[in-house]
Amino acid sequence: MAGARPAAVALLLAATALAGCERGSSHLPGVSPTGPGGCPAAQAEARTAVSRAERGDVPWGGPTGGPAAVPGKTIVYVAQTMTNPGVAGVAQGVREAARVIGWNVRVIDGEGTPAGIQAALGEAVSLRPSGIVLGGFDPGSTSQQVARATAAHIPLVGWHAVASPGPSTDPPLFTNVTTDVDAVAGISARWVIARSHGNAGVVLFTDASIPFARHKSDLIAQGLAACSGVRLLANENIPIPDASSRTPREVSVLLSRFGSRWTHSVAINDLYFADAAPAFRAAGEKGSGPPFNIGAGDGDPSAFQRINSGQYQAATVPEPLTLQGWQILDEFNRAFSGRPASGYVAPVHVSTAGNSAGAMTWNPSGYREAYRKIWGG
């Protein structure tokens, strides 16, 4: 991949990426890297950051104190769609933690459509539970139902509901549980820079209908633009509910369009690579790459299976899904006790076949013991 890359083109590429995308695909012109290895300074910074994020010995850094369990509570988990492995993984963590703290949990599936999510949250409010989880959807799309919950004094805890972790006043969330989206996006881009030695042609997969996801993909594009030898070939907007039907077709088109220029991919959710695998396989692409694919969330078991077996995914930046389910219940317990949110944000991590040791999930160690001790279990 030789040739010159004028600075003006690089600036235009970065500005285009940050502008976001609308429904459909946004294809960006390919250009060639500049300088030895593309971007020596950015490479060095990326290698250091990725090495740190790949460490496996991550101790518990969350709360060690808090209120004892408040008995007899019922939580409703409203899922954006249970076909989203991250949403489903957190739901499983909530159920697991509920058995420990002694609460009841009900899951209502919004099935991935605005009408379905609105109906699911409306049903949740009508049940008058102790608390409601907004699992992976924008509260702005359910403003009437959120207002009803607030009027009924039902605490709301989000998971990937807004862009930042922690409490929110607009929308009114006791807290939002997520890793830091800037850190996740940044390490995903740095992984590409480090893995490619500063020379890459990248396809980015996102869902621009979800503000959280769109913000993440904008940040990833910004991070990639830090390296002059990395080209953003295409920014593919595929809504998550449509991923299974649209991704294989889009991947086939991308392979035909870019061929060997497509060396790496980043997706805001691992599920895109599950849906892309048949198209890669049909085109005769090796499971071990290229393209080398990294998911900037969510680190569900199927992603680990692809990574560990070398089947069309090389890495993931996993959400600690089970831990986050436990954290959600701990945050509710703080709300019921009149205490502030914990403020805990799980650390960013990169999982590969080389550091996962065959595991199918990633969570920092010690969280179960810590929460049991806090709750008095």
UniProtKB/TrEMBL annotation:
Residue span(s) of domain Periplasmic binding protein: 75-327
Subcellular location: Cell envelope
Keyword Signal: yes
Region forming the signal peptide: 1-19
Annotated region (Disordered), positions in chain: 29-67
Superkingdom of origin organism: Bacteria
Record's compositionally biased regions (Low complexity): 58-67
Gene Ontology CC annotation, any one: cell envelope
Gene Ontology MF term list: carbohydrate binding
Keyword terms of this UniProt record: Signal
Family membership: Belongs to the bacterial solute-binding protein 2 family.
Annotated protein name in UniProt: Ribose transport system substrate-binding protein
Source organism of the structure: Streptomyces echinatus
Organism lineage string: Bacteria, Bacillati, Actinomycetota, Actinomycetes, Kitasatosporales
